[in-house]
Design brief:
The protein has 335 residues and is an alpha/beta fold. It has nine helices and ten strands. It has a four-stranded mixed sheet with strand order 2-1-3-4, with helices on both faces.
């Protein structure tokens, strides 16, 4: 008999009524339905002795090296840890204390849309003159929050990404954003404190016991996507035809192709790292942006749209114009 998680996941990848339709989500999903691993080929997991804060520290230090600054030159640090190493006060203050920093540091959370929400927040703070330079860090250590024998485990990975938000020339950087709520996904997943049967210590486990989770994603993703992307483009004075590259978070292998189809964007103008990292949740947007930029697919002056979707949180899009002095750190796999 399949375990409970296996049964859930099989329902997640089926359409809402068990049949295939001609909507964009179903069309792009079809090639993966015969693949047991649904397009996942590799994933990364942290070592037993590592913590989310270890990943965050390396990402923050790598970000500063790439930009050619000392961490002490940061004015603020925003951290989203999925999940943090400690309950109560989370990772932000502890992370900056490790580096001897005395700057404001706070935690925030908008699930898998944390990059777009973080960019929206940090950009507003820099524009308002409250800070000149903000580091935005997102991490995920989901391998520790699922049962290794569960079929949830093979498509959830670990990772961390970091972005630096600072002033740039007029007409470059983040131009606009549009964020909406995803309250319709409430109940799709839950996190419970359980006692591990082997080591007899408590740990947080993620469960997806709501069999409607996949249907909710499939039925709502296109409306969330178009509302956010077209809303952000309207604010910026652009249309979809002006978009040079589309970067989305990719919780499933076909999500980038689905977004391109739904928006009418050439799929060659998208990127997906799902096959390499599997689902790394809030880090996906940064990973895909890094992949596109480091391989030269995004060029100076390009209009780039970011889109992220998070369960029980928000969906959002941001429009940016790529600058000519963007600093990139080492490749997360080869570097």
């Amino acid at each position: 008999m399949a375990n409970k998680d296996n049964g859930i996941y099989l329902r997640v990848v089926a359409s809402s009524d068990g049949t295939e339709s001609d909507n964009a989500f179903d069309i792009e999903r079809r090639p993966y339905l015969s693949d047991t691993f649904r397009g996942a080929r590799e994933r990364r997991v942290i070592a037993a002795e590592e913590t989310a804060m270890d990943l965050e520290q390396r990402a923050l230090q790598g970000l500063c090296r790439a930009r050619g600054i000392d961490p002490a030159e940061l004015d603020a640090v925003m951290v989203h840890s999925w999940l943090p190493d400690t309950l109560g006060p989370q990772n932000a203050a502890h992370l900056t204390a490790r580096l001897g920093l005395r700057v404001p540091a706070w935690n925030f959370e908008s699930a898998c849309n944390s990059v777009v929400v973080g960019l929206q927040t940090a950009t507003a703070l820099v524009r308002a003159g409250d800070y000149e330079r903000i580091a935005l860090i997102t991490s995920i250590t989901s391998s520790r929050n699922v049962d290794p024998s569960s079929t949830l485990s093979w498509f959830l990975g670990d990772g961390c990404g970091a972005l630096l938000i600072e002033r740039c020339p007029t007409g470059r950087g983040i131009i606009s954003s549009k964020v909406i709520g995803t309250q319709e996904t409430c109940g799709a997943a839950e996190f419970l404190m359980e006692v591990d049967d082997h080591i007899r210590t408590p740990r947080i486990r993620m469960r997806m016991e709501n069999t409607a989770a996949g249907r909710i994603m499939r039925d709502n993703a296109e409306q969330q996507l178009t509302t956010c992307v077209r809303g952000a483009l309207d604010k910026a004075g652009y249309t979809i035809d002006d978009v040079d590259f589309l970067v989305v978070n990719t919780p499933v292998a076909w999500f980038a192709a689905f977004c391109a189809r739904a928006l009418g964007v050439d799929p060659a103008k998208t990127v997906s790292t799902f096959g390499t990292y599997a689902n790394i949740g809030p880090v996906l947007t940064t990973a895909n942006l890094f992949e596109a930029a480091s391989t030269g697919r995004i060029k100076t002056g390009d209009v780039v749209v970011l889109f992220g979707i998070g369960s029980v949180s928000t969906a959002g899009a941001a429009v940016m114009v790529w600058g000519d002095d963007v600093a990139l750190g080492p490749h997360p796999v080869s570097g």
